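Hi support team,

I'm opening this ticket because the web form for multi-chain structure prediction keeps timing out on my end. I have pasted the exact lines I submitted so you can reproduce it. The total is 612 residues across two entries, so I didn't expect it to be a heavy job. Is there a limit I'm missing, or should I split the entries? Thanks in advance, R.K.
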Amino acid sequence: MIFQHPVVRRTGDLSLTIEFGDEVSLEASFRVLALAQQIKVASIPHVVETIPTHRSLGVVVDANAIGTTRLSDILDEEILQALELRSVPSRIVRIPMLYDDFWSTDCAVAHKHENSFSAICRENQIGPEEVIEKHTGTDHWVGAVGFTPGCTQAFPLDENHIITATKCPVPRTWTYSRIVGLGGRLTAPYTVESPGGYQMLGRTPLDWYDPSRKNASYGDDITLCRVGDRQRFEAVDLRTYEAIREAVVTGSYEYQIEQSEMTLPERAVVQDGADE
Amino acid sequence: MTATTPVLKVVKPGPQSTVQDLGRVGYLHTGMPQAGAQDPLALKLANQLAGNPSGGQFGGQSADPGPAALEVLMAGLHVEALASVTVALTGADLGPMVNGKLVGSWETIHLKMGDELVLSKLNRGLRGYLGIGGGIAVEPVLGSRATYLRGAVGGFGGRALKAGDILEAYDSRPTRTLRVPEDRRPPSVGGEIRVVLGPQDYLYAAEGVDAFLALPWQLLPASDRMGFRFAGPSLQFASDSPHQMEYHPPFIVDDFIPLGGIQTPSEGLIIAMGVDGPSLGGFSKIATVCSVDFGVLAQTRPGQQVRFSAIDWADAVHLAAWWSQRIEQEEVVVPA
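Hello R.K., no limit was hit. The queue was backed up. Here is the completed structure from your submission:
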């Protein structure tokens, strides 16, 4: 659900968190983005950064410089003033994927786990081709970035294209970088070699973060995607995967990123009005 | 560009020695951890004793990460001075020896060319900070020289030091000999760990919060700068968890994890997030370690016990500012 009134939660002396609800949804995400934008516009002194997640906004603050009482007042006011956004800037980022790849197979074998792709087929009671059709057939909304640098969590916008995966009961101790996983209905990449329990869908040749900003497609960002982007996965064969990977490594790959915006569907807006 | 001079050659790197400053502030929204010293107050004082500025307030908006020093895990580091250089060891007591003779921790050490500094023995704590006059000269990445090992970002080529590495320092001026008396040192091993309850303390039964605060927790070996794992009592959740429809504690909808956030993923296990920890996660968090006590996390050894005590948010903010100001105003160091 989405709370009637956002709740300010204490997260130590270096930050605060404003919680809007306990669900993963476009509505919750729009609320979070609205407050992030409001805080940015208000340019509150001593706010170091804001961290949007599916249903909460982390705010890193220099609480001592601003004064704890004043900080509480300011945040309460910004929460009240945050507009309900109907539409937000939202890029479409195309992500080539080698589905059911042999690195994922190798990783599952090394951990003595069931093959991830088979597990996904079984859980959704569909064949490999239909898994790929479902996953590539809808845009995925990036609701959170974190865990590792540039790691996104995205959910499918079209309810007819949802596939789900139960996380591995015993998490892997490592996963190849650039493998893309599915946990519940969330898609998330392993941006660096890391432990994890998401079922492995495939591997992308794209890099997800670049602190040196060597590729022009990143602009001023150090990550490929940010909260509010839509990801559009595209199935490629091994030969295309390898060609793209080589271009990414040499810095010549042109990331396919389209500027666009996203409007909250009418249905959601009506529901929201009914709450209040 | 400031001139740099080769000052130290690594003869033996020890178990893990990395270049760290106060960390990369302002990138948690990208998933990039802050990194930097796990014991920031000890790093600040190591810098001051070596004649350097101590940097801005930890985690603060000034985002001045201060000069880079070495974070040294346990004993074993052996370096040779390639020029006259001022250094100082704070944090853990690692039995520093110069040319085979014991010298003091928490005080300025003047090395001459050819001197050998060996951190000979783990006496107390776990992580030492070796401040180096002028600060270690490596290229900053996103405004900081801190090493984030898992991402191979920053510091000395994104990695821990190896034998044969040569550390350069920015130019420095000769400095007086200073020390930090024992009673002025920042919170370290043996102390309790102060926390601010939240963000999800409301998901726990009152008995759960009481058990968390009343009973001892033992640090587990599988702890590092990403997370400090402690074994202790099982924490009871509230029977009617508000605001959790789809998920049942300890699982929550993925949420922002602050530095020092304490997750409770399974019975009898909690994880306090370190400076290399993730900024997003799906386990409920009972409390957050106060930044002044990050040093206690850094200096506790696996097998040792700690207790947590809850303080008010405003008190935690003032405590952090108080330590920062005392160090800034040079009230902690005294002439030796």
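A quick check on our side: The two ends of chain B are 33 Å apart (CA to CA). Let us know if the file doesn't open in your viewer.
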